Amino acid sequence: MALITWTAGQYGTNVGFADDEHKILFDKLNKLYDLATGGAERSAIGAQLDDLISYVVDHFAHEEKEMLAKGYAGYDRHKEEHEALIGICGGLQAKFHAGQAEVDEGVGQLVKGWLDSHIPNFDMAYADALNS
To answer: Where is the signal peptide (predicted)?
Structure first.
């Protein structure tokens, strides 16, 4: 069962690349969630965690590049939000691979909650600037 489902009404930014990348991000998060809550091997969970975090880092870099190119006034605050999540994810990733943490339903809910807040409050705000 999907943890999070992309819909234009809830998550659409009207910025083509961002919406496309968010859909992929959601798919990767759902796959991690399914593995973690479905009793998959730790190695499979770790590989998916690494894939998700790598994708998130690349997506954030793409957003930030586009914001800078358009002179988006909210860039600094937006980048701070990105850096905060990367820090959380990087810490989890390191602990997971050291055998000191698990990826479980709570981790999925944490990331979902962040996306539920970040996309409407930060990503939708850049639509006009990035579409200009």
So the answer is: none
